[in-house]
Each structure stands twice: as structure tokens, then as C-alpha cells.
TrEMBL record:
Ranges in coiled-coil conformation: none
PANTHER family associated with the record: MYOSIN LIGHT CHAIN KINASE, SMOOTH MUSCLE, SERINE/THREONINE-PROTEIN KINASE 17
Protein name: Protein kinase domain-containing protein
Entry keyword annotation includes Kinase: yes
Organism: Trichoplax adhaerens (Trichoplax reptans)
Length: 239
């Protein structure tokens, strides 16, 4: 059972292929958000993005038939590890960036990048996929797209202040994700949501904690580049 629906295993009779059926209970008159997510997923065919095979509606449910991801959340695997090498973190983040770049090239923003939305394809493999496009939005460079939603710990400053968003907004989301991977620390987490959002808007964060002493200059440079509230960005870790 997920946050916004029930997920059940299913098998396509004609092929024998197994899928995951996400069943979202909703009134017919209140399905705009779910149908928008389906429309966006139909445009996102990439190895690092979960694949939507089919979708249909009943009077009670919208059902999304997606590929099965058997590996669980990446965060759960990392929590079980006593140590994690920086090169491993970079490998995971490269995969995230590959999926993110494809989305941005398709004029789509994810807007909900967080550890829970990074899933392993199989238990014994390191391949990951981005999931959950419920907050994703289409965009054009000339648009003044603004949103006011997100997880306080990961949300970008321009979302908090209700300013124009861009692909740089998604890049900001990578900052806390990357810091958690490298250090175990969530950079903007406060005692409550208000404190957390204040830390985000003030960019109240640095490398002073001793745990960052063993992190390479290259990783610190990439993290620092994510702090810019500027639509000019790159996908440096992909190199």
C-alpha cells in the first residue's frame, strides 16, 4: 500500500509478463492530477525512469500498470551498509542525472526528487530508476511556471518563495539527496517544517561538519554548484 494508492502484482495473460498495478481510488470528477501523471509518463520512455505499460479507469479506480521494480528503495539498501564509497554514490547519482536530463530534454520537471523516489530495479543489482511523477509538470523556457508543493527537506528556494521554476529547481533537489548519500546528514533539516524551510530559503548550510572531511574536492564542487539559484546548470557528474 503506497501513499496515494494500493500496489498489487499482476500478470499479462497474453505474454506472462509480470507488472505492478497501482490502484488509485478516486472519483471520476476528481482525476485531473492522476490523468496528468499518466500523460507525462506516456512521454517518458527511458531506462532510468519507471515505465508505464498501460492505464485504465473504472467507476472507482484509476489503475496504472507499470514495470515491476523488485529491488526496493535505494535508501533502504544504503542504510544497511556500514560504509559507502564516494565512487558508489557517484554511480547512483549519475543514473539519476541520466533520467533527469531526459526529462528536462523532454520539457518535463520531476519536482519531487527524494530518496524514497529512487528505486532499485533488482535486489542484487545497482541499477536504479526514478519513480513517482505525481508532481511532475511540463514546462517551456518562456513560461513563468510556479508551484507551491513539495517535501520541505528537499524543496528548492524558488518553490518556497513561489517564484518561477526551471530545470535548475530539480537540480537543487539533488543537493540534499547527494548530501544524505555522502554523509548521512540532511543539510536543511530543522526542528520543524518552518525551520527547515527557513534554512532552505537562507541556504543555511556548509561543509563545516567533520563528516565532510573525507569527501573529495570534486564532490564538494558539484554540491556547491547545485546551490546556485540560477537556471544555468550542467550535469557534471555524468562525465
Amino acid at each position: 500500500r503506497g501513499k496515494f494508492g494500493i500496489v498489487r502484482a499482476c500478470t499479462e495473460k497474453s505474454t506472462g509478463v509480470e507488472y505492478a498495478a497501482k490502484m488509485i481510488k478516486t472519483k471520476v470528477s476528481d482525476r485531473t492530477t492522476v490523468l496528468q501523471e499518466i500523460d507525462i509518463m506516456n512521454q517518458l520512455h527511458h531506462p532510468k525512469l519507471v515505465f508505464l505499460h498501460d492505464a485504465y479507469q473504472t467507476d472507482e479506480y484509476v489503475v496504472m500498470i507499470m514495470e515491476v521494480l523488485r529491488g526496493g528503495e535505494l535508501l533502504d539498501r544504503l542504510i544497511k551498509r556500514e560504509t559507502l564509497l564516494e565512487v558508489e554514490v557517484i554511480y547512483y547519482m549519475q543514473q539519476v542525472l541520466q533520467g533527469l536530463k531526459f526529462m528536462h530534454d523532454s520539457n518535463i520537471l520531476h519536482l519531487d526528487l527524494k530518496p524514497e523516489n529512487l528505486m532499485l530495479f533488482e535486489k542484487d543489482y545497482d541499477d536504479i530508476k526514478l519513480i513517482d511523477f505525481g508532481m511532475a509538470r511540463k514546462f517551456q523556457a518562456q513560461d513563468s511556471l510556479k508551484v507551491l508543493f513539495g517535501t520541505p527537506e528537499f524543496v528548492a528556494p524558488e518553490v518556497v518563495s513561489y517564484e518561477k521554476i526551471s530545470p535548475a529547481t530539480d537540480m537543487w533537489y539533488l543537493l540534499p539527496v547527494l548530501c544524505i548519500r555522502l554523509s548521512g546528514l540532511s543539510p536543511f533539516m530543522g526542528d520543524n517544517d518552518h525551520d527547515t524551510l527557513s534554512n532552505v530559503t537562507a541556504c543555511n548550510w556548509d561543509f563545516d561538519d567533520d563528516i565532510f572531511d573525507d569527501i573529495s574536492a570534486e564532490a564538494k564542487s558539484f554540491i556547491s554548484s547545485l546551490l546556485r539559484r540560477d537556471p544555468k546548470y550542467d550535469y557534471g557528474l555524468m562525465d
